[in-house]
Amino acid sequence: MTEIPCTHPRFASLKIRTLIEEGVAQGITSTAGLIAHGRGEAFDYLLGEDTYDFALEAMYEAVKVLKTAKHPIISVNGNTAVLVPDSIVKLSKIIQAPLEVNIFHSSKEREVAIANHLQKHGAENVLLPSSDTELTGLESNRRFVNPEGIAKADVVFVPLEDGDRCEYLVKRGVRVITVDLNPLSRTARTSHITIVDNVVRAIPALINLLLNTPTNSSKSFSNREILIRAEKKLRAFSQCS
Ligand code: ATP
Ligand code: MG
Q1: Strand, helix or coil at 184?
Q2: Pick from 238, 177, 218, 185: which is nearest to 55 by CA?
Q3: Which H or E run includes 13?
Q4: Distance from C-alpha of 227 to C-alpha of 208, rounded to nearest angstrom
Q5: Could you give the CA distance from residue 188 to residue 177 in angstroms, rounded to a whole number?
Q6: What is the pLDDT along the chain (241 residues), one digit of tens a residue?
Q7: pTM, entire model
Q8: Quick check: 229 and 213 in contact, CB under 8 A?
Q9: CA-to-CA distance for 56 and 206, rounded, in angstroms?
């Protein structure tokens, strides 16, 4: 892999790209994951690669929901596994939620590679999808789930979700929390809580909130309002100001 000098002005972004590239070489990330990453990266560029109040407010709401969930599950795909393996494992332990491997582009080998990667990073509770348990009515490979996991979850935390499954879970009455840099995606618009931030910043920030902030405020939450604020921020981007 190309060595990136730490003085490079785009160092952080290039390091993240390297992780995704390595993920493909290790059989964890799909080649389509590279494209999905590119889309996210473009939005992050427009956001100045920063975490804003609309993301923090969504995280605050997510913490409230995760703390009171009866059967929370964290759904993990290849991009999340290579970008934030340590923090997603840490989150799973703090909220006592299994990590369930669930990918859009079908591959048994990749599912196992993701599970192994998470275990190498300390995960103790990793679930794989079962070919016998399907979410009927959903057509993509994401329909295969674990009977002890997503199949009976009341809350699913799914960074980098796919719109189809998100809609499906919401219709089933599951609370869906996502991280998506694109406030215009179907996922962002369908989820109950959308954290518009890069997953590499969002998961550590969420952990920090979980551990250090009391969440007893009853302030009302509107995901629609969060998305409007995020979109405004994106559209306000200008290098000429
Ligand atoms: P949808 O299926 O919801 O309509 P989509 O088809 O546009 O969305 P997908 O390819 O399903 O997008 O998933 C990629 C999504 O993940 C994009 O919205 C992209 O902005 C977002 N994304 C990619 N990388 C990151 C990241 N590191 N952090 C947060 N979001 C990201
Ligand atoms: Mg999609």
Answers
A1: coil
A2: 177
A3: helix 11-25
A4: 23
A5: 9
A6: 678 888 887 888 889 999 999 999 999 999 999 999 999 999 999 999 999 999 999 999 999 999 999 999 999 999 999 999 999 999 999 999 999 999 998 899 999 999 999 999 999 999 999 999 999 889 898 999 999 999 999 999 999 988 889 999 999 999 999 999 999 999 999 999 999 999 999 999 999 999 998 877 778 999 999 999 999 999 998 765 5
A7: 0.95
A8: no
A9: 8
Question: Cα–Cα distance between 57 and 154 in angstroms, integer?
Answer: 21
Ligand 1, closest atom to CA 41? 24
Does the beta carbon of 180 sit less than 6 angstroms from any atom of ligand 1? yes
Measured in Å, residue 165 CA sits from the centre of ligand 2 at 9
Q: What is the dihedral of CA 180, 186, 188, 191, to 10 degrees?
A: -120
Backbone angles phi, psi at 149, to 5 degrees: -115, -115
Ligand 1 within 6 A of CB of 36: yes
Distance CA 230, CA 216 (A): 25
**Cα 232 to ligand 2 centre (Å):** 22
Q: Terminal CA-to-CA distance of the chain, rounded, Å?
A: 37
Q: Contact, 95 vs 73, CB < 8 A?
A: no
In sequence order, what DSSP letters do the residues of 188-205 get, joined into one string? Answer: HHHSSEEE-S-HHHHHHH
Any atom of ligand 1 within 6 Å of the Cβ of 190 = no
